[in-house]
Write a structure and sequence with these properties.
Residues 16-207 form the SGNH hydrolase-type esterase domain. The protein has helices at residues 20-23, 36-47, 63-70, 73-80, 91-104, 108-135, 154-168, 181-185, 189-192, 202-213; strands at residues 11-17, 50-55, 84-88, 140-144, 176-179. It has 223 residues and is an alpha/beta fold.
Length: 223
């Protein structure tokens, strides 16, 4: 990662959006609750600036709930003023649909969840891109793909893969990159997951922060 102090401001705004992963559920550290403060620290060191961070995540939120929350005037205003935006989304859409699937073993609910997830994320990223374009201000959006807590279950491998394919497609939006949590967690689930086998533990959140950090900050350099 390049260390660069050519940012013109000594403070940048960082806004975190998402679900329980962005909340930090499962993290044992009080000072580093989840990945957000870890990524914040990495970013401050890399760019030589201070971050002003806000976290609007809520445990259990689906992409529809995240979209609804972001489109509230006060939240959207903060997002539009942000230099750095991170998003975790889609996991709860998949979990809710999977509960239906394991009752009926019919994939309709999973297909519907995939479509809704893609529609909601597209609306969110379009809204951000359209408004950001008006101001011509450098910014980055980092989206985390889904890791698979059940890598030994073939249906989970299939559907996590399909959800991640649609998340990867959002790289077509300006300044968007995808952090590959799937690969970071694959084969390391026992080491990186909390006792519930779903949320990351402190080591898992460190891995998420590193995955985000390694995407770089090229869009913000030489501001």
């Amino acid at each position: 990662m390049d260390n660069n102090t050519n940012t013109k401001k000594n403070k940048l705004r960082y806004t975190a959006l998402g679900d329980s992963i962005t909340v930090g559920v499962g993290s044992a550290s009080l000072h580093y609750k989840g990945y957000v403060p870890r990524f914040e620290e990495f970013t401050e060191i890399a760019l030589g600036v201070r971050l002003k961070t806000r976290n609007f995540a809520h445990s259990g939120d689906t992409t529809e709930e995240i979209l609804r929350k972001v489109m509230k005037k006060e939240v959207f205003k903060r997002v539009l003023r942000s230099d750095i935006i991170t998003i975790t989304a889609g996991g709860n859409d998949l979990i809710q649909a999977a509960k239906v699937f394991f009752k009926t073993y019919e994939e309709d609910a999973l297909f519907e969840a995939l479509v809704r997830c893609k529609e909601n994320m597209t609306k969110l990223l379009c809204a951000i891109a359209e408004e950001k374009e008006k101001h011509k201000k450098p910014y980055i959006v980092r989206i985390c793909n889904l890791y698979n807590p059940y890598s030994e279950v073939q249906s989970a491998v299939k559907w996590v893969g399909l959800f991640n394919e649609h998340l990867e497609s959002f790289c077509r939006f300006p300044n968007v990159k995808i952090a590959d949590l799937y690969s970071a967690f694959l084969g390391r689930e026992k080491d990186l997951l909390w006792w519930d086998s779903i949320h990351p533990n402190s080591r898992g959140y460190q891995a998420i922060a590193v995955a985000l950090y390694e995407l770089g900050y090229s869009e913000l350099l030489d501001r």
